[in-house]
Amino acid sequence: MPDREQGFGTPEQSHTASASEESPTPFSETGEQLIRRTPMGYVWNQAGAIWLFLSLLIFEVVIRRSLPKGETNDFDLVSTIANLGYYIASLGLASAGTVFLPRALAEGGPSLALSLANRLAAIRLALGVIVGAAIIWGLPALSTLVEGMGWPQGSAFVHSYAMQTILDHRIVIAAYVLCVGISTLLSNLLIALVYTRIVFIIGSLGQLLLLALAYVFVHPLDQGVDGAIAAQAVPAAIIAVIFAFTIRHVLKAKPSSKGHRMLRPTLRLGVAAWLADLPNASLVQPVAIGQLSAVAPTELLYFKSTYQMGDAGARFFTDGLGGISMATMSVSYEGGLGPLAISWRTVSKLQVLLAVPLIAFCIPHASSIMRILFGTKYEQTGLLLAVFLLLNGLTQLLGGATHEWALYVLGRQQWVVVSRWATLGILALVGIWLVPQFGALGALLAVGIGRLVAQIFLLVLARVWVRRPYPIAFIVKLLLALAIPVIVTIFFQPISFVASLMAAMSWIPTIAQPVIQQGLLLALNLIIFTIILLICLWIIRPLDAEDAMLLNQVPRWLRRALLPFASRRRNRAPAAINE
Description:
The chain is mainly alpha-helical. The protein has one domain. It is built from 23 helices and no strands. It has helices at about 15-20, 30-65, 70-90, 95-150, 150-160, 160-170, 170-190, 195-220, 225-250, 260-295, 300-315, 320-330, 335-360, 365-375, 380-395, 400-410, 415-440, 440-465, 470-490, 495-505, 515-540, 545-550, 555-560. The two termini are about 30 Å apart.
């Protein structure tokens, strides 16, 4: 693999002869090149995802520790509505572009790819303007209309806490929808082209600017909720401009006049992805928050913080797989169903391997995590986080988002839509029963159960249409490898060692010592957990013959790192199935 990313206007470095001689590959030449670039693409993409998580976590900590409790509830509501507007304006273009931009590049070269990227960006910008205008001018007009009708229920809604809060902050909500929307689309297009290093560098600088602006807007300028939302919108606008020039530079071509031919199937997939993303990413929280606010509004901040931490813990190491995996599956499908099946199984294993160990570690330490991050008033949310992580862990064990990506590539996106709306329906029905009884815990249970049912549904469909079994043996081996480190870190606590370290750091202010001591204890447990897990994986060797075949297609450094975890048995890899 080249040490630097190259523009598509110049020839790509070919893979080493030694790797190609080791075993034949069912992938096309384009697929081989993309797979060869994918490992480093994932590394940069995941590095960006981890930094994004850490920076947003710092952002959340700053906001929640800076704003009064009343304004914190305002911020949770406004940010939820801003995300809802963002998803309404998205039209699924990011997911569709991730699938079709690599195809456009493979079929028509940089010229066709740039034409498609330009059209997607123009549509996304127009949608952001429309939704933003509806928020700024449409909501006040609607409130006036409802108020003039003289309905008591309508008047109560217009003067409700939620509606008045949204109206008070509608300018920054519209700015968030427009700026974050176009920035996210362009970053996904660059990820689909496997230019993840550029996305990582520019995105990281943008997140640093976000943290700086958050501090300035909330503290010296005292802008409260408006400042917190604006701190997210301003860097996104700057990043969008940089990404737009970057895409034009790396493709190095004149836009093709034939781009409209690929736009129609892209929009068709985009609408399906939008219908799937809307309930999954933007309506789940509002429905759960609406049910919770009706019976226990004081628990809103506990639900929101736990929901965010539970999702972050489940996706901490897997967010980098998204665009990379979908692009790989899309190009692999050129070779038929067999190469796609191999990619599907491999990505499923990666999803499980990267997500489940961290979840397994976090569940018994949930209370410590919440106390360290958000203070003692959030310590009671430890049980909530543990339960939500358990449900998220079961979803990840069943493949996470892998089956959704495979169905998109197969053109079966309508079933993803069905599963997402079914998730929302299950959430609403189960929440009616659980939320009044258990409050925030009931809302989290409803969310987790809805997701789990939808995940089982998608797994069954992917298994049938990909025509390959789900890697159950791999999952069983991983769970066996996890048993020992989980048990050890639950019962073995290096408290005396941490106490001696704290004694040696007497210069630390007294008020900070409890948090630092808990953080050190958690970090040591994580190190012990990781070492024992690696030893167990080396003994069990969960990777099989099919994985060994794929290792021949990746860079040598990655192959050497993973071979110790591959089975030594010389089983014949499953034959490729082609249509």
